[in-house]
Write a structure and sequence with these properties.
alpha/beta; N-terminal domain of TfIIb; binds ligand MGD; binds iron/sulfur cluster; binds molybdenum atom
Length: 719
């Protein structure tokens, strides 16, 4: 069934506003769009209207969401396919572009084999797109090589979740529960900037008498809200969590009944924690023992409590173990599997949750099924109408895939990511992309990655197409098309349908999102992320439906684990983990820590938000945040250009002098390409389990920029 606006063209006039959700982060704020004037390609005619009834954000939006229609404008976005001819990208008809893509993949696969074709997806894609992209890889290309940018995002938390609880849903409870818990420990999340409307849950928590502990090497706007701010060295969260568990045990705060009845593996976890006594942990982390004691008093002393992690502790080469150690703390104190208590990961991308459930991950099939499990393969193959033996096995993880471009993988489709800016060791990744025989990028704008492509396919955007996403709470929600895309722009579902048929698969790739969703429901049925009972109509009526939801009579599952955990024996599992250093620690040549992250007004690689004037005015370019004492030592003033060097490369950006950061650490946001690209510096050391790169810690040297740097930078500073 097509949504009316899709079938009938732009919804002109003053028709009722269409309810939808923001295109950006995992909060997926509810909003409504009213379209007047010509509609397509005309942001002025698209008005964002408050949708106060949607519970997660209750009408509030951040500046990114509010200005998202700016990216719908022609002149900003792509409006026709581009095909490289004589080295230059020129506009082409869809048929020519699609023929080129089909030929590009066929040539490479006939010469080098099926696995020489690769796909790099994104956690911003709707469930329908992510599902069909995974199916396209396995059924049409027959390649094992598909992975996506979520690997750079929450994969460590996902791995830890599965180890401890048997299932990975970022938050096992709705956000509203956070406001009512006794104590929340927020580890490496700056949600004041990264999910502004969600800050309300933390301020309400304090108004309700609860306490807030924030763990971040920087005094962020989130940390400013805290009852207690712990400011560890980057990359030492694992030691900190073990130190807190040590104090919990030493001070008699273990919930013995809970541990005995609902968990396994405590003995080994206890032994590991006992080896991390407070003074030792203070030496590793820099967090004074009295502050650790205070954190334990607040957390263990409250009747209910939560630990919430985001990218700070997760984007480390030991992220999985680190999250496991924080989960241990919840389990030992009985703060899991009970109302208003538990561990949760604050997932990042718009569909960061759903995007990891339905098959664009190298080791997965839809419904969180495993690509190596015979029963899982048989179920999905039956839905797809193919022989289970025809499905490839697991492929390479995101960075491992990018690292073999041009050698083992010769043709690549990128849909929904901009790795030239966002991948670790980005100069190397850019070289690999350039060395491909064939690169096709589907995007809404000409991103830095699309600029390298042989073919660029212009995709429709959030406001122009219908589809579901799954927000950070596990709530499946519906974006509804409010207007039609400009002529020359097509949805990704159309692209996959057309490519499949050119490659000989003429069924199973519908272009209508609801039809795709119905197939996804069947494919996920009986799996962990079971969507079988979720329909578009139910989502409209119920403000979203939480998975698992096995049948249409089932109410959905806002809260997991209250009776049992999702492990075979129903018990949560402690993990046996010990601290280890980051893959790269400072030394005489590279004496400082670099950590990276986000600012309020830019989103991710910046491909979309750098095209919005209001956001650029607020956050015009990259910077290096450093402490005044470090700035003095280097002899630099605020705004002066700095050169930052690591073993991977060099970046140049103005100094932003601030007492909010540790003296031994500098911080760079990663939203820009060019000379100020943070990822020229970052370390692709991978977590052994999740394959997450170590974005949050590496060693650098910082100095005043030289003449050559000034020329490369082109600008005088942060203006
Ligand atoms: N404005 C904006 N909002 C966004 C995004 C965006 O790009 N811009 N992206 C979305 C996405 S995909 C994601 S994943 C989320 C990310 O959301 P967050 O995780 O909140 O964002 P980050 O800035 O990457 O990292 C959070 C904090 O980790 C701290 N940190 C750095 N190193 C360490 C460490 O070793 N330990 C600890 N404990 N903390 C550390 C940083 O100082 C930073 O304040 O945001 C989402 N929302
Ligand atoms: N140094 C450092 N690097 C990081 C991080 C960090 O903290 N530090 N964080 C990492 C994290 S958590 C993440 S999530 C990644 C994100 O990094 P990227 O994967 O680069 O994320 P985006 O910039 O959101 O890229 C999405 C691209 O898809 C396009 N797009 C949007 N919607 C659609 C659609 O529906 N269809 C198609 N075809 N295209 C679409 C957008 O225009 C954009 O070009 O960055 C990672 N990189
Ligand atoms: S918080 Fe996230 S979902 Fe909400 S408006 Fe901002 S970017 Fe969009
Ligand atoms: Mo992310």
């Amino acid at each position: 069934m097509k949504h009316a606006a899709e079938a009938a063209g732009p919804a002109t006039g003053t028709a009722a506003a269409t309810e939808t959700h923001c295109p950006y982060c995992a909060l997926q704020c509810g909003m409504a769009l009213r379209v007047s004037g010509p509609g397509a390609g005309d942001a002025a005619g698209v008005e964002v209207v408050e949708r106060a009834s949607f519970p997660v954000n209750r009408g509030a939006l951040c500046g990114k969401g509010r200005t998202a229609p700016e990216v719908l404008r022609t002149g900003v976005r792509l409006t026709a396919p581009l095909v490289r001819t004589d080295g230059v990208l020129r506009e082409a008809e869809w048929s020519e572009a699609l023929d080129r893509v089909a030929r590009g993949f066929a040539t490479v696969q006939s010469t080098y084999g099926r696995d020489a074709a690769g796909i790099f997806g994104g956690g911003g894609l709707t469930n329908e797109k992510a599902y069909l992209l995974g199916k396209f890889a396995r059924v049409v290309l027959g390649t094992s090589n598909i992975d996506y940018n979520g690997r750079f995002c929450m994969s460590s938390a996902a791995a830890a979740h599965r180890k401890a609880f048997g299932v990975d849903r970022g938050l096992p409870f709705p956000l509203e529960d956070v406001a009512r818990t006794g104590c929340a420990i927020v580890v490496g999340s700056n949600l004041a900037d990264t999910m502004p409307p969600a800050l309300r849950y933390l301020t309400e928590l304090k108004e309700n008498g609860g306490s807030l502990v924030v763990v971040d090497p920087r005094r962020t706007r989130t940390a400013e809200q805290a009852t207690l701010h712990l400011q560890p060295l980057p990359g030492t969260d694992l030691a900190l969590a073990l130190g807190l568990l040590h104090l919990v045990i030493a001070d008699g705060h273990v919930d013995e009944d809970f541990v005995a009845e609902r968990t396994t593996g405590f003995a080994a976890a206890r032994a590991a924690a006992m080896a991390h006594w407070p003074e030792r942990v203070e030496r590793i982390t820099g967090v004074p023992v009295p502050e650790m004691r205070r954190a334990v008093e607040l957390f263990a002393g409250a009747a209910t409590g939560m630990v919430l992690t985001a990218r700070g502790p997760e984007q480390q080469s030991k992220g999985t173990d680190t999250v496991g150690a924080w989960i241990n703390l919840c389990l030992a104190t009985g703060k899991a599997g009970r109302p208003l208590s538990g561990y949760g990961c604050l997932t990042g991308q718009g569909n960061g949750q759903g995007g990891r459930e339905h098959g664009q991950k190298a080791d997965q099939l839809p419904g969180y099924r495993s690509i190596t499990d015979p029963a899982d393969r048989a179920h999905v193959a039956a839905v797809w109408g193919v022989d289970p033996d025809s499905l490839p096995g697991p492929g390479r993880s995101a960075y491992e895939l990018l690292d073999v471009l041009g050698s083992e993988v010769r043709a690549l489709l990128v849909m929904g990511s901009n790795p030239v800016v966002s991948a670790p060791r980005a100069a190397h990744v850019t070289d690999r992309l350039r060395s491909l025989d064939f690169l096709v990028v589907s995007d809404v704008v000409l991103s830095e990655t699309a600029e390298l492509a042989d073919v660029v396919l212009p995709s429709a955007q959030w406001a122009e197409e219908t589809g579901t996403t799954t927000n950070l709470e596990g709530r499946v929600i519906l974006r509804q098309a409010a207007l039609t895309p400009p002529r020359g722009v097509r949805s990704d579902l159309f692209t996959l349908h057309e490519l499949a048929s050119r490659m000989g698969v003429t069924f199973g790739f519908p272009t209508d999102a609801e039809t795709v969703f119905d197939e996804l429901r069947a494919a996920s049925s009986g799996g962990q992320a079971d969507y079988a009972g979720i329909t578009y109509d139910r989502i409209r009526r119920e403000d979203g439906v939480f998975w698992p939801c096995p049948d249409e009579a089932h109410p959905g599952t806002p809260r997991l684990f209250l009776d049992r955990f999702a492990t075979p024996d129903g018990r949560a599992r402690f993990v046996d983990v010990s601290h280890r250093p980051a893959a790269e620690e400072p030394d005489a040549d590279y004496p400082l820590y670099l950590t990276t992250g986000r600012v309020l007004a830019q989103y991710q690689s910046g491909a979309q938000t750098r095209r919005v004037a209001e956001l650029n005015a607020a956050e015009p370019g990259p910077f290096v945040e450093l402490h005044p004492q470090l700035a003095d030592r280097l002899g630099v003033a605020d705004g002066e250009l700095l050169a930052v060097t690591s073993r991977r490369g060099r970046a140049v950006a103005p100094a932003k002098v601030s007492t909010a950061i540790r003296r031994d650490t500098v911080f760079m946001p990663f939203h820009w390409g060019g000379a100020g690209r943070a990822n020229s510096l970052t370390n692709p050391a991978l977590d052994p389990t999740s394959k997450m790169p170590e974005f949050k810690v590496c060693a650098v040297r910082v100095e005043r920029a030289g003449a050559a740097d000034l020329a490369a930078n082109g600008t005088g500073g942060r203006s």
